Amino acid sequence: MHNQPSGAAFDVVLLLHVACVVVGSVTIAxxxxxxxxxxxxxxxxxxxxxxxxxxxxxxVNWAGRTIYGIPVFGFALLGMSKGAYAVTDVWVLLGLVLFxxxxxxxxxxxxxxxxxxxVVVQRCAQEGVDGVSAEQRPIDALGSHAEVMERAAIVAxxxxxxxxxxxxxxx
Length: 171
What we know:
This protein is mostly helical. The protein is built from five helices and no strands. Helix 1 (8-42) runs antiparallel to helix 3 and helix 4 runs antiparallel to helix 5.
C-alpha cells in the first residue's frame, strides 16, 4: 500500500476534480429530466413553458463541458501523488475508459441532439406555434430529438456514476 498523498495543493486539485464530476453529473441529469419533460409536452398541444424555452435557447452547454476538467485534474492528481497512483493502475485505466465513453457519447449524441432541440424550440418560439394543433407543430422532430437527448443523458449519467464508484473504490 502506498502512502496517501497529502498537502493543500493536492487537496485543492482533488476538490476541483470532484467539483467537475458533480457539476457534470448534475448538468447531465438536468438534461435528461428536461428532455423527458419536453418529450412529454411535445405529444400535447400545450404551449411550451417559458422555462423550457429558456433552457433550450441557442448556445453551447458550457456547464456540461465541465466534464473535461475531470481528466485534466485527474492527471494532475496522478502527477502530484508522488508515485502513490499511476496511469497503469487498473482503476485509473478503467476510469479513463469510462470517461472517454462519456465524452464520446456527449459529443456525438447528447449535445448534437440538444442543439437540434434548440433549433426546433427556437423555431416554435419565433413562429408562435406553441399553442397550435398537433398537426401543425413539429412534434415528431421535437419528440424524437428529445428522446435521443434523454437516452444519451441517462447512459452518460450511468457511466459517470460507474466511473465515480471506480474512483472511490479503487479496485
